[in-house]
Amino acid sequence: MTWQTTLSWQNAQKRAAVLQQIRQFFAERQVIEVETPALSQGTVTDVYLDAFTCKYNFLADSPADQSADLYLQTSPEFHMKRLLACGYGCIFQITKAFRHEESGRNHNPEFTMLEWYRIGFDQFDLMHEVAGLLQIVLGGSKAVFTSYQDIFMQTVSIDPLTASFDELVELLNKHGKSADWIVEMNDPDFLLQFIFTEIIEPTIGIDQPQFIYDFPIAQASLAKRSSDDPRVAQRFECYYRGIELVNGFNELTDATEQVIRFEEDNRKRTEQGLAVKPIDVNFIAALSHGLPQCSGVALGIDRLIMLALDCQNINEVVSFGIENA
To answer: Distance between CA 118 and CA 251 in Å, rounded?
Structure first.
């Protein structure tokens, strides 16, 4: 371990220039920058996300001798949607986010996220706006757009919306990716996600940014169900040069449906032996009050800068990674 930074002065200046480009992009579109808390009393229920937890002894409605759990935010999403429910217009934020995950070439547990919300946009409007930002920052080829169903058909010749559990296991065996623990989970949705990550992702967005949209409903607990196909939700991701850059939604605005989806997440957590997470009651109250129709997206700033600077490791674009923080 070293006390010195892994971010060179030259790259620090280039990073600052990219952040300036991003802020200019939103200034030209009258999207307003906001700031929300890193600490919250609520957190995500997502089976595949884990937040850092800390203790706090001084909440007004809790005993002084009993600490309460607070969570470092995996994303500013819930707070930003609460702002929209309060009557805010289109907003963006550049902020730190935290995920209790292993560090690697493309990920640090503490990272910088750009998140923004556009009132009146659907997922396609927002995908095209994201593509415009990527064009400004990265240049290069224009983006392509492919549905989740189509990318499966093109890559592994299987329809993810109709395939049986046995067909998915057979596909994993064919590609040498099966294992007893995967099959024993007995979860078709997990198999789809595993196939997507291990087999399909490496083929996406190699030479140009590629958006994948209309994910299965079980993989999009915060997205609105598609009116064209109730099996899918209006969620999208974007990949470029081997990196997942973007995750976005046409936002679910129905509080009752949102609670059902969070409870389903916790049911899966219980089945997998994971801790059940408290549902964020402030977020649900905001949805109950009324969230305007909107689409929102999160973009990994550090990964974007890796692409802009042609860097191969996230430590080259952050001042101190977790190993020498």
So the answer is: 10
| Residue 273 forms part of a structural domain | yes
**Pair of tokens at residue 47:** 């089976």
What are the residues whose beta carbons fall under 8 Å from the beta carbon of 159, sequence distance 6 or more? 149, 152, 153
| pLDDT at position 292 | 97
Q: What is the DSSP letter of 219?
A: G
Question: Does residue 149 lie in a domain region?
Answer: no
If one counts the domains in the chain, the total is 1
DSSP letter (8 states) at residue 200: I
Q: How far is CA 166 from CA 178, 182, 184, 192, 216, in A?
A: 12, 12, 12, 12, 18
How far is the C-alpha of 145 from the C-alpha of 238, rounded, in Å? 9
Tell me the residue range of the domain where 16 lies: 9-143+208-324
CB atoms within 10 A of CB 175: 11
**237 and 212 in contact (C-beta within 8 Å)?**
yes
b (16+ CB within 10 A) / e for 183-215: beeebbbbbbbbbbeebbbeebbeeebbbbbbb
> Which of 191, 165, 189, 160 lies closest to 178, judged by CA?
191
Q: Report the CATH number at residue 50.
A: 3.30.930.10
Does a structural domain hold residue 310?
Answer: yes
The first and second tokens of residue 136, run together, are 């400004």
Is residue 235 within 8 Å of residue 298, measured between CB atoms? no
Task: Return the DSSP state at 325.
Answer: -
**How far is it, in rounded angstroms, from Cα 147 to Cα 210?**
10
For the chain (length 325 residues), average pLDDT per consecutive 10? 93 98 98 97 93 92 83 97 98 98 95 98 98 96 96 97 94 89 86 94 95 95 93 97 95 96 94 92 97 98 97 97 94
DSSP letter (8 states) at residue 317: T
Q: Are strands 144-147 and 210-216 parallel, antiparallel or unpaired?
A: parallel
Q: Note whether residue 183 is domain-resident.
A: no
